[in-house]
Design brief:
By secondary structure, the protein is of the alpha+beta class. The chain has eight helices and six strands, in the order ααααααβαββαβββ. Strand 1, helix 7 and strand 2 form a beta-alpha-beta unit. Helix 2 packs antiparallel against helix 3.
């Protein structure tokens, strides 16, 4: 007993030291993230200002070019009829032409410098953005480690007999959540946010220059803005659907699955056959969500790891149970032999099924395919349409 207490105390001290080191590392990396973000915002503001200056300089160069042409025409007129003008008038014409020409040359030079500065800022912003994304990913991973150390792993001295697989699954689940948040943040930043920023800049430019542009060009510009808005709206709707399919709440399990599988089939270019029976009663919301996520995970696992040509999904509604079958004709894998790359996805499905007191069976044959069978005890009722639909 004394030895075990000593072991526990030693483990706790080691854990405290590890936590302290990880927290210090997180603070340091977080400081780098904040400094990088601050520099990024500063350069982004400067870039916007430079872009406005470029537009203004282009307009000034065009104006000076017109004046220079008029001045050259005046010079030609003076040279052609020299006797009509006094010496002071001739001198004034020459000086005016020379002055405008110098201003035009200087404006061209400044325009070139501004364009060079704009490209330089864009390159620096791209480099900073890549650095920022890597640093944010590192902070997220350190947060995962901290969360793990503060929860599951800190109790390791009391849980040495627990299943190692479940501990690793917990860690993988947290990591998946954090990476999904980063992915969602990046999708919003790189998709709708960038589109809206582009629309804002395009609108500002159109407002500043619309009087000088042909009506047809302005209409085309407005049409482009409309298409960008439509694209951004589509991106937002896709992100919302990935987070939680609204059809699941509005229409129920089968229509939501049908829509999801058709969308995945179109995106992955893999044939997905969906067979299902119909219950006239809606299931409990938690049951519907659980079954949807289980099938979603199984099909995505097959698409990602099995390299199949066809995936079969079958959903059977019986009086007191629901059967789920997901089968692919992919490469298969040896079940139960070590940790395969997709094992955490299988563990996640198994965990969901066990929470619903169901049975989870997986069969796989190399170069033949994989079959997942799930049975859930659910009271559905008597009114069922048992015919399978496709």
């Amino acid at each position: 007993m004394t030895a075990r207490k000593m072991d526990n105390q030693t483990l706790d001290e080691i854990m405290d030291n590890m936590l302290s080191s990880v927290i210090d590392s997180k603070s340091h990396v977080f400081g780098i993230v904040e400094d990088t973000r601050s520099e990024y915002e500063k350069l982004r503001v400067e870039l916007e200002e430079v872009k406005v200056q470029v537009v203004e300089k282009i307009e000034n160069t065009v104006r000076l070019d017109l004046l220079a042409r008029a001045a050259r025409q005046k010079l030609t007129e003076v040279d052609g009829d020299f006797n009509r003008y006094t010496e002071s008038q001739v001198k004034e014409v020459y000086e005016t032409a020379q002055n405008i020409q110098e201003q035009h040359f200087l404006s061209l030079k400044e325009e070139k410098l501004l364009n060079h500065r704009r490209k330089e800022l864009e390159n620096r912003l791209q480099t900073l953005l890549e650095k920022l994304q890597k640093a944010e990913l590192l902070v997220a991973r350190i947060s995962i480690v901290l969360n793990y150390l503060n929860t599951d792993f800190k109790q390791v001295s009391h849980l040495l007999e627990d299943a190692k697989q479940k501990q690793e699954f917990g860690f993988q689940l947290i990591q998946a959540q954090e990476e999904e948040r980063i992915k969602l943040s990046r999708e919003i930043h790189d998709g709708p946010a960038q589109t809206l920023a582009s629309i804002l800049m395009q609108s500002d430019f159109l407002i500043k220059t619309y009087r000088q542009r042909p009506e047809e060009d302005a209409r085309k510009e407005l049409g482009d803005i409309k298409e960008q808005v439509r694209s951004a709206l589509g991106e937002v709707r896709r992100i919302i659907y990935d987070l939680r399919p609204m059809a699941l709440d509005d229409l129920g399990l089968v229509p939501a699955l049908n829509k999801y599988l058709k969308s995945l089939e179109s995106y992955k270019h893999i044939e997905i056959k969906f067979e299902y029976g119909q219950s006239k009663k809606r299931l409990n919301s938690k049951i519907e969500v659980a079954i949807f996520r289980i099938i979603q995970e199984a099909v995505q696992n097959a698409c990602k790891h099995a390299n199949p040509s066809t995936i079969y999904v079958r959903l059977e509604f019986l009086r007191n149970k629901i059967n789920v079958f997901v089968q692919d004709d992919g490469i298969g894998f040896p079940v139960g032999e070590g940790q395969s790359e997709n094992s955490f996805g299988l563990i996640g499905m198994k965990e969901r099924v066990e929470l619903l007191n169901g049975d989870f069976i997986i069969e796989s044959i190399l170069d033949v395919g994989t079959t997942i069978r799930i049975t859930l005890d659910v009271e559905i009722g008597n009114k069922l349409e048992m015919s399978l639909q496709k």
